[in-house]
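new request in #modeling-help
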Amino acid sequence: MTDKPSPRLLLKLDPLVAALRYLTIFLVAFALFGLILWLAGKDPLQAIRDTFSSTLGTGYGLSEVVVKMIPLLFTAVAVALPSRVGLINVGGEGQLYMGAWLAAWAALTFSALPPWALLPLMAAMGMVGGALWAFIPAFLRARGLVNETITTLLMNYVAPSIVTFFIYGPWRSPLNALYPQTIDFVPAARLPAFFGTRVHLGLLLALLFLLLYWLVIKYTRWGLEMRAIGGNPQAARRNGLPLTTYVVAVLCIGGALAGLAGMSEVSGIHGRLRPGFSPGFGYMGFLISWLSGGGPLGILIMSFLTAVISTGGDILQIKQGLPFAVVNILLAISLFVILARPSLLTKGKQA
Amino acid sequence: MKKSLFTVLCLLVIAAFLLPACKPAATPTAEPTTAVEPPTAVPVEPTEEPSAVPTEEEPCLIIGAIYVGPVNDAGYNQAMHDGLMEVKENIACVDLLEAENVFEGPDAERVMENMIAEGATLIFPTSFGHQEPAFNVAQKHPDVIFEHAGGWMMAGNFANFYGKPPETWYLMGVAAGMMTETDKLGFVAAMPLGWTLTFVNAFELGAQSVNPEAETIVTFTGSWSDRAKEAAATDALINQGVDVVTMHVDSPATVIQTAETRGVYSIGFQSLAAQQYAPEFWITGAGFTFGPLMTGFAQSVIEGTWEPAFIRCGVADGCMAVAPYGPKVPDAVKAKVDEVLAQLTAGTLVIFQGPLVDQDGALRVAEGEVLAEEELGNTDWFVKGVIGQPQ
Amino acid sequence: MSVLSILGVISSAIFSGASLLYATLGEILDERAGVVDLGLEGVMLVSAATGFGVTVRTGNPYLGVLAAMLAGGLMNLLFAYLVVTRRANQLASGLALMFFGFGMSALIGRPYVGSRINGLPRYSLPGLSDLPPLISSQFRFDLLIYLALPTAILIGWLLFRTRWGLGLRAVGENPNAAFAAGRDPRWIRYQALFLGGALAGLGAAHLSIAWTMTWGEYMTAGRGFIAVALVIFSKWHPLRAVAGALLFGGAVAFQLLLQASGIPISPFLLDTIPYVLTLLVLIAWGGTRKHAAPASLGRVYLGAEQ
């Protein structure tokens, strides 16, 4: 018995039907969101219209949506992969920070390297950072000591503090006078951007890993074994599958991907380490993985939609005077609708 | 079961009804909820009346402002917001777009771009950390004017303005030094940034000038706005024997209220609206009063006469003000503060002139020398008499 | 470090720990009934904003506290609907609730950001008013703090000494068996979640109305999650939760004290202490945890009708 909406169900069907299902989810979500806006004294139709026009109506808006999407793709897979074996990785946020931290270390220490050497090094370090951060919860879970949900969650709070410590301490920038940040990265440490927008090479990396994820799950032996473990761990163990290895490996890979999200953000967008630079990418990745049931196409679509919603929050603030945080309501309601599993989505299939 | 979809909708609707409907609807614009004490300084120049442009037509100028926090925080953001509200009052045909809680990072670019897309031609990135994103956007839009607060970058369409807080901090120190009975002053700071350390130093030097025994204890909360930490930090300072508390965080509300509850004096910063939180134990405060300056900017943009200028203006110029005094402050203190202010304005008193010694006893500024203006933002040390970690 | 400073840490621990304790008690109820509520952070935020708003509007902090409790209960009812009636995954629902809380609290609280309230009045412990004001002023506590320990005892009594509590725990251990014994697991879980949410709301009310007397977005700063950790730390027992909450509240205060004493440890590293502490405790107790946790914790109850 599963207690999440079956991802394969949503995807194996006629893509048109699947698209219709996603559309319905969002229509319901938007309707409820509009209701809340209306109760708050705002104009919901105008708000929703503005959201879409400012994000999808201009080239600039679209590019910004893609910029937001890049880390979401990483963090969503970081959650989706462990979920194949039934693990819950809520630690994307912390893993992201540690990945960014190690990547920043590489950028600052090896600043003399040319970009074709430095960037892959930073990416590798990003993955190592995230993987290491995920290793502790993975180890504890594999040993049966503590559930990984709680440990990954707690470690989310430790990581940003460590990063901030370095920003104010050893890596402090001389410009620290006015705002806290590290020394700027050299140009060689920056992921290049395209066509004068802020969309950077991280996009290709993210899409690559999404593709890899899909290939592994669908076509490799590992994917098969992971699904077996996720479906029935007891039986899998009896059949000789190395559960412990998978638990550790899968969580660490997930962490590595989240770490890559961190690296791509600090390298592609910021060009330095700043405290609190992630507006919850890790948690949003968790939401996306759930909204999409963990399937790669769903992740792509949901990341895009999530990016649209969170980018659209700006215009809601500027024109409607709403606090930016209200976009969280829309995200949450979308998730509520899916979690509530109205029959429209599951076509009468029981939980 | 179609029923289940219906139940979903019903329950969510009910939940949506109950939560916000029980509470009053949010007001569309963020008006400050309290009356602000009028500043004691006189505006620099009388503002010109706008030309006869009826307000129902196209606005003569759309201003965009981004804030790092909420505009009614009775602190920095409110001070900036109040200044812009004054512009709207002075020039009726101005439209104002505002965005709060804009993180000091690349995302700020997007917010400003959105404002420009909505027609803004004068942008105020009000927080230190908005400087670089704003500069990037300025490069892409040479016809839009940017007035950044607190930085140093300049360009053809990008200028910088700010007050002279060290001045007012010195005055606050004077007041605190005279009012304290335990000779221990407390300073709740957000983060160990260069300017913050400078403020602390100015405060302590001011206190020392009237009370050589005075010490300032500094605690950092690690965040511009963590209310619980600020309350705890204030309590911790008071437990050390501090009887005058001041702060450099976004909103002084929590620190001042905590001090008031414990019966300890407080001095506010950033916005004159802070006084409402401490009716009894308020000493005074310093606030930014940029209304006239901002009106001048707006006017020049409308007339097309705007030129980039690096502006630092203090109390005498009307950009900063000393708040009205609280009920427990004796006249002697008020007189002394006025006297010192006159000296600072006249230039006969220079705050950071040598000899200045740091906490470890090392000489930082030699006798007869003055700490350079550019250095103030890069301070990484505390003067002797300050207790706390500058790193 | 003077006696005054140490007393200060204790006083601060009590102030800081009170909201934690209430939230933890709420989560204990939830988890004893078999439901993990990760959305406490969102619940607390909405409660804090609602309570603060009502206090501003009516000028009456007690009404604000009641409003906060109600808001918390309602938020958790929404959660209950998802995980009990719709049988959704508890972890995902909890996180969704958290996001919902982020947004709703910002919306509800926005008009009140700079408002000033008269918080709950504070009373000295009897007999302490003779001490020098510096000491006695540290130990003036508000009503919610005085009620914290009694509430913990009450919850303990409810859980372990009443039939209702027995039923709740039975559902937490094995809902099918409980159902066979004539109880309604769904209804019991609804009750537990509502009460749990109300308790979390009480904690949030203390934070915004009694202690900081302000509202700001995200002001709970992770307390909702610490509460979840504290539940495990206290082995699902209300009285041990008191010790845990004090410990955590004290950690924050201790960090500030170290700073104020001029001890050169980075405040950011000190910030991590509560979480690292929880992790260590979790690891240490990891082996015995299996015996302490309610057996059906986190698992969806499908009910007798499939």
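bot summary: The longest helix of chain A spans residues 115-142.
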